[in-house]
Amino acid sequence: MSVSVGGNIKKMRLERDMTQGELADKVSVTISMISQIERGIKVPTILLANDIAKVFGCKTDDFFKD
Questions:
Q1: How confident is the model at residue 38 (pLDDT cuts 50, 70, 90)?
Q2: At a CB cut-off of 8 Å and minimum separation 6, what does 60 contact?
């Protein structure tokens, strides 16, 4: 069983009715970076994952759950 960090980030973003652009702006990265993370092409750095978690009001551990 494989956990998709990017897939979990995308799911959380959509649950909050947030666009990739809105998330990108809030964490100071490009829309392309968010897209690549969500598609599993790139893995967020610890700092970026932390910033995304703050925006979502969760812990970075939540990105690794099934």
A1: very high
A2: 46, 49, 50, 53
